[in-house]
Amino acid sequence: MIDEKTLEQIKPGTRVKVHEKGGQFSGIVLARKHGKQAGATFTVRSKLSDVGVEKVYPIYSPNIKKVEILAIPKKKVGRSKLYYLRKLSDKGIRQKLGA
């Protein structure tokens, strides 16, 4: 389970590291859906071996041990879904988010 303080910080553009039962996955949060409902999720995207990988995590999943907040974007993110980051390079993402 994710504690309440961390749950409030999980927003689009935030860099997170998700510790799950099988290991860990770090990347940028692209979307957060359905608030705090039972089916609420957040999507994390990372690049592994030059291939984009996305994982969708249910917020109330028992498989998630801990979520670490690595960085919060310096600029205000103007959208709630950052799907356009899929087409950008790493440098483009840094410029857009001010990281």
TrEMBL record:
Biological process according to GO: translation
Pfam families according to UniProt: Ribosomal_L19
Gene Ontology cellular-component annotations: ribonucleoprotein complex; ribosome
Family listed: Belongs to the bacterial ribosomal protein bL19 family.
Function: This protein is located at the 30S-50S ribosomal subunit interface and may play a role in the structure and function of the aminoacyl-tRNA binding site.
PANTHER family according to UniProt: LARGE RIBOSOMAL SUBUNIT PROTEIN BL19M, RIBOSOMAL PROTEIN L19
Protein name: 50S ribosomal protein L19
Annotated source species: Candidatus Colwellbacteria bacterium RIFCSPLOWO2_02_FULL_45_11
